[in-house]
Amino acid sequence: MDSPLQSVPLFMAGPVPIMPAVVTTWAIMAVLVLAAVLLTRRLTLVPSPTQAAAELLVGAVDQQIRDVTGAPPAPFRAFIGTLFLFILIANWSSLIPGVTPPTATMETPAALAALVFLSIIFFGVREGGVGGFLRGFALPNPVMIPLNMLESITRSFSMFVRLFGNVMSGVFVIAIVGSLAALLVPIPLMALDLLTGAVQAYIFAVLSMVFITSAVEKGDPQPKEP
Amino acid sequence: MSFDLWTLGFQAVNVLVLVWLLHRFFWKPVAAMIAERQARSATLLNEAEATRAEADAALADLEATRAAIAVERDALLAAARKEAEATGAALIDAARAEAAALHDTAKAARVRAAAALKDAALEDAQDLAVTIARRLAARLDGAAIDAAFLGWLVQGLTDLSAADRKALSADSLEVISATPQDAAAQERIAAALSAALGTPATPSFRTDPALIAGHELHSPHFTLRNSWAADLDRIAAALKAADPEQKAGVTSDAA
């Protein structure tokens, strides 16, 4: 069994190695976009069951964003919702035989954490400007500037490590158990992996929202909407 | 353990592209549909609220109209009641007046009928008296009756004043007797008249059985009634003039 910490290129595009995680990600993207197009092709005021399910998902994401930020969810909906959907589908892709979830390799969680780190800066600067965003590091007093800067990095790093560790460990455990008793025994662990995958997707999305909200509030402290 | 930066970059770009694609094809249209439905619902709710407000206003107008109708109905009922009372009172007064008029008319008719009845009875009594007198006169001695009546005639002339007797003697005289007078009787009557008037009298003679008995003296300007018929007429006139019931009835009618 290969080490989950070791990535082997699937093929080479010139000097660029194309890892399995990238290909799996492309497949997940294709599935999600195709499903989105099919779902939103015929939207009506009287929804079909699939449209109702899609609206339920959008409503749940909006409500979660509204609960965390107290602000209108539209600016954050696409980013936070896509993070959640992608991580969820990526985590659950381990159920397909022969597929390794992209989130079980270090690059994908690191890329997601990096995007969250950048989105914190983006939303913070958009809300309060560069000065306002930077002044947020001096709260509650300038002595905290080094610690706040370090925290902004470490919290993204912790998200990366948490997601990677949980998914990788699940895959690793299932792989070990499967190598010992391949029939039926891994099924409970796979079910547990489903739960773990959903929880991790939820945690990653909510933490992203919390960190973005923190940066927005520090940059432009406004009272939340009731 | 390996960490491939190319893969890191690919995955970051992949996720960004996925964010854009899903924003384009999923999050935005679904959220727009939800917002449109909410807007439609809000519009429908507003319209329903407006309709309800209109219905409330219409209901209020209806209540006001109904109250006005009730007030108007009460006023109309009161006016109708008052008018009915006035009309009833007028009808009662008119009926009372008409009844009084009818009563008066009936009373007057009754009085007139009673008077007519009494007159008829009186006339019947007169006729009966005449019949009785005529039958009595037929049983009596005609010569004695004629002599008695001749005496009363002479007495009547004697009771006149001298001037009246003188004027009477200048007129042509007619003696009307109840029975035919023969020549001797005529001479006797003429002699008696001449003696009473103090001048010779040559009266003409005529018979009228309606006198029953007696002699009457007529001239163009004088009449001396001296017969039972005249007596009965006088008695009837006296009875009619002295009738206390008829007098009382006329008096009460006048009241």
Give a brief description.
The complex is a heterodimer of chains A (about 230) and B (about 260). By secondary structure, chain A is mostly helical.
Mean pLDDT of chain A: 87
Tell the overall outline of chain B.
rod-shaped
In percent, how helical is the residue content of chain B? Answer: over 70%
Indicate the multimeric state.
heterodimer
Largest sheet of chain A: 2 strands, antiparallel
- The number of strands of chain A is 2
Strand content of chain B: 5-15%
What is the N-to-C order of secondary-structure elements of chain B (H for helix, E for strand)?
A: HHHEHEEEHH
Biggest contact? A-B, 47 and 33 residues
Number of helices, counting only DSSP H or I runs of 4 residues or more of chain B: 6
When the domains of chain A are counted, the total is: 1
Number of helices of chain A: 6
Major sheet of chain A: order of its strands? 1-2
Ordered list of secondary-structure elements with their pairings:
The complex is a heterodimer of chains A (226) and B (255).
Chain A: E1 11-13, E2 16-18, H1 20-39, H2 49-69, H3 74-92, H4 107-135, H5 145-180, H6 186-219
Helix pairs in contact in A: 1-3, 2-3, 2-6, 3-6, 4-5, 4-6, 5-6
Chain B: H1 5-139, H2 142-159, H3 162-170, E1 174-177, H4 183-197, E2 204-207, E3 215-219, E4 222-224, H5 228-241, H6 244-254
Parallel strand pairs in B: 1-2
Antiparallel strand pairs in B: 1-3, 3-4
Helix pairs in contact in B: 1-5, 1-6, 2-4
Keywords (chain A): ATP synthesis, Cell membrane, CF(0), Hydrogen ion transport, Ion transport, Membrane, Transmembrane, Transmembrane helix, Transport
Protein name (chain A): ATP synthase subunit a
GO molecular function, one term (chain A): proton-transporting ATP synthase activity, rotational mechanism
